[in-house]
Structure formats: C-alpha cells, structure tokens
C-alpha cells in the first residue's frame, strides 16, 4: 500500500502501472521457478513416471485449483499441517546442531523424531477445520496416551 501510494504520488498513473508490472513479474518469476523446481525433483524421484513437462502441467493445474479455493480455506487447511510440521522442523534443527555430540548413530534421531511426531499429531487433529466423530476419536486416544499434548 505504501509503495503504491508513493509511486502514485511521485509518478502518477504511470508509477502505479510500473509497480504493478514489477510485482506481477516478480510473482510470476517465483511461481514459475517453484513449479519447475518441483517438476524436476519429482522427475528425479520418479524416473519411470511423467516427464518434467507433464509434472509442470500437473503442478500448475493443482495450484490453480487450490488457489481458487480462497485464502481463508487455504489457511484453514494449512494450519493443521504446519502444527504438525513445525515441531518436527525444530527437532531436526536441534538434532542437526547436536550431531557432533550424538555421533554417527541414527537411533537418537529416529527416537526423537518419532516422539515429537507422536506428540504433534493431536495438535494436527485439533486444528483440522472439520471436526467429526473420527477426529474426536483420534483426539480422545491421543489425550489418553499423551495427556500433556
């Protein structure tokens, strides 16, 4: 808003058009880069699968469908995923920092990651935008097993 206001104040309509074009190109560049990077990674992960071009089409169509769901819906469904992934990411960072003291053993990494995933699961279920009998059952079991979660 500030940038648009300043450009309108100093350059008039041409400034607004210029800022709009710059933002559009920046967003398109980022979106295209992400789609192509994902397509290349999926091609490497699944060499017998679709080509890079096919993956680009798949990701572009999926992104368009998800984008049309609306920002509120996207946030509502991404919140539970983030509630699950953030503790795992923090654990991975801490374990990475402790790596010199843990040695080459993978057992501490597996145990910690498993425990944190188990503890984060109830948060994921509680944050789901749809609460039904299935989610209540999972939350009830999680509360019995992990009363602190």
Based on secondary structure, the structural category is mainly alpha
Mean pLDDT: 89
**What share of the residues lie within helices?**
over 70%
Rg over CA atoms: 22 Å
Overall geometric form: extended
The helix/strand order is HHHHH
Question: How far apart are the termini?
Answer: 41 Å
Query: How many strands, which pairing sense, and closed or not: the largest β-sheet?
Result: none
Count of DSSP E strands?
Answer: 0
Determine the number of helices (DSSP H or I, runs of at least 4 residues): 5
Question: Which parts are unreliable, with pLDDT below 50 for 5 consecutive residues or more?
Answer: none
Which band does the percent of strand residues land in?
Answer: under 5%
């Amino acid at each position: 808003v500030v940038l648009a206001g300043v450009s309108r104040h100093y350059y008039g309509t041409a400034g607004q058009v210029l800022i709009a074009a710059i933002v559009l190109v920046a967003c398109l560049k980022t979106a295209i880069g992400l789609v192509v990077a994902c397509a290349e990674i999926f091609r490497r992960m699944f060499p017998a699968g679709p080509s890079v071009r096919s993956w680009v089409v798949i990701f572009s169509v999926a992104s368009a469908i998800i984008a049309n769901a609306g920002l509120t819906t996207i946030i509502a469904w991404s919140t539970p995923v983030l509630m699950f992934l953030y503790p795992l990411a923090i654990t991975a960072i801490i374990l990475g920092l402790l790596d010199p003291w843990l040695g080459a053993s993978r057992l501490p990494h597996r145990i910690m990651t498993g425990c944190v995933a188990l503890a984060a699961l109830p948060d994921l279920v509680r944050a789901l935008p749809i609460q039904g009998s299935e989610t209540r059952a999972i939350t009830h079991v999680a509360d019995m097993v992990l009363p602190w979660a």
